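Students often ask what a 'structure token' actually looks like in practice. Rather than answer in the abstract, let us consider Polynucleotidyl transferase, ribonuclease H fold, a protein of 75 residues. Its sequence is given first.
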Amino acid sequence: MRWKHERQFGAQIKRFLTDNGREYLPIGIYLESQGVKFDTSPPYCKGQNGLAERTNRTIRERINTLLSDAKLPPS
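Now compare that with the structural description of the same chain:
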């Protein structure tokens, strides 16, 4: 994942921020072993994870638009 990103975008991953979910612990251990700083935001604090929350909203809106155009139900 890291090297694919670095090759594709020409940028090095220096920090990985998550919402403190348990599912990210294994990747956090791996990333730290590779020199990437692994940070978590406080639980239930969307304000500190604003960029990710906005990105998720944009993705949901685009998916709903595609489903609507295809005449499919939203769920």
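One point worth highlighting: The first helix runs from residue 2 to 9. Ask yourself how you might have guessed this from the sequence alone, and why that guess would often be unreliable.
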